[in-house]
Amino acid sequence: MYTINIMQSLFILGRQPALGLAELESLYGAKNLHPAGPQAALLDVEPRHVDFNRLGGCIKLAQVQTELPTTSWRDIESYLLKSVPNILDSLPEGKLKLGLSTYGLRASASEINASGLRIKKVIKEAGRSVRIVPNKSASLNSAQILHNQLTSPLGIEILAYREGSKTLICQTVAEQDIEAYAARDQNRPKRDAKVGMLPPKLAQIIINLTAPTADATVLDPFCGTGVVLQESLLMGYSVYGTDLEPRMIEYSRANLDWLHQRYDGNFGIQLEPGDATTHTWKPAPSVVAGETYLGKPLSKEPDETLLHTIMQECDRIHRGALSNLHKQLPQGTRLCLAVPAWKYKKGFQHLKTLDYLRELGYNRIEFRFARKEELIYFREDQLVARELVVLVKN
Ligand SMILES: C[S@@+](CC[C@H](N)C(=O)[O-])C[C@H]1O[C@@H](n2cnc3c(N)ncnc32)[C@H](O)[C@@H]1O
């Protein structure tokens, strides 16, 4: 059992918590990470040292203030009524905005709203004016936090997170910027429904799973329209993109030019057409990150024969690409590939290549806090999921 520290970071994880845990473990190491309940993780790093905007698998970052030996909302409210006035002196002048979010506690939205009004009263008595953001559910959503600027100097979001028989009281420091993600995703000039739309958040997770060093060059050998390249550039890495289709290289170039006009940074970009099974990459990259070829698009669940044909084609391309990369990558190079896994009957059919990674000269990395079966990005309406495979070249 670890001790809770004030100043520790609490992350609220995304829809598939294992992806967020693997990403944090990859960037900060397992010994600093402590999963907390089904939806969160604590990290022994202060929030100010966390580059939150690069984390695709985390929704919220909060700083732990204290731990209460109770899970009763009434007790928690009593604590907040006493403690909130103490933080007011450290806040700048002006009207405050305050929100309350709870996780895992038995407190309805109306109980939380009633507590909010009582907290408003004590803040007013302390001589400050405040607007309380009303809860529609137990926790405020990202849009409410962003629109009400609860992470700005005049904003406060208090987060009460149940951890077993205790409650962590935290203050939110950062919230995922859903508008910035949407702008990067939807406003790019070149998109292509046929090669699929990799969500920027998933691209960030893929890159983070390669744990790149600060001066890394990220290679995506199946770069498509360049989402992984885009997110790598925004994290400050140089990028190298190749794709079988010259048209995709043109699309990536147009998208990265567009990005360069909107975001500051020293963009190091190398793009060229190339078949991943035969191409020579010069110079060799530091890490390899990408969503690979997922097979031809499907409109309904394939029958056994079609599935077999698709899986064979994908196996040939993946095996070819991995053995070609193996000849060129320095030993110890880390790769994260999002490869297809097909929804079939009640489970998934995995890419055959995953059965002979050792023979191809790679070790598959296992995470302490995320089983490999959990590292499958999937939405109910999709027929092909993306299995995140993290490898090291032997
Ligand atoms: C699923 S898309 C990748 C999408 C990309 N992650 C993006 O953000 O747009 C797969 C890409 O692999 C490319 N591809 C297929 N076979 C290939 C091969 N043998 N070598 C290189 N690229 C290949 C396709 O042209 C396609 O652009």
Your description of this structure?
Helix 2 runs parallel beside helix 3 and helix 6 (200-208) packs across helix 7. The protein is elongated and about 70 Å long. The two termini are 35 Å apart. By secondary structure, the protein is an alpha/beta fold. Strands 9, 10, 11, 12, 13, 14, 15, 16 and 17 form a nine-stranded mixed β-sheet that branches. An eight-stranded mixed β-sheet has the order 2-3-1-4-8-7-5-6. The chain has two domains: 9-176, VC0802-like (2-Layer Sandwich); 188-393, Vaccinia Virus protein VP39 (Rossmann fold, 3-Layer(aba) Sandwich), CATH 3.40.50. Helices cover 31% and strands 26% of the residues. Strand 2 (33-36) and strand 3 (40-43) form a beta hairpin.
Per DSSP E runs of 2 or more residues, the count of β-strands stands at: 17
Outline the biggest β-sheet: 9 strands, mixed
Taken together, the total number of domains comes to 2
Oligomer: single chain
CATH architecture of the largest domain: 3-Layer(aba) Sandwich
Write down the overall mean pLDDT. Answer: 95
Tally of helical segments = 10
Secondary-structure content class: alpha/beta
The SSE string, one letter per element, is: EHEEEHEHEHEEHHEHEHEEHEEHEEE
- CATH fold-type name of the largest domain: Rossmann fold
Gap between N and C termini: 35 Å
Ligands in the structure?
S-adenosylmethionine
Proportion in β-strands: 25-35%
| Radius of gyration of CA atoms, rounded to a whole number | 23 Å
Low-confidence stretches: none
Q: Superfamily at the CATH H level of the largest domain? A: Vaccinia Virus protein VP39
> Could you say which overall geometry the principal axes of the C-alpha atoms support?
elongated
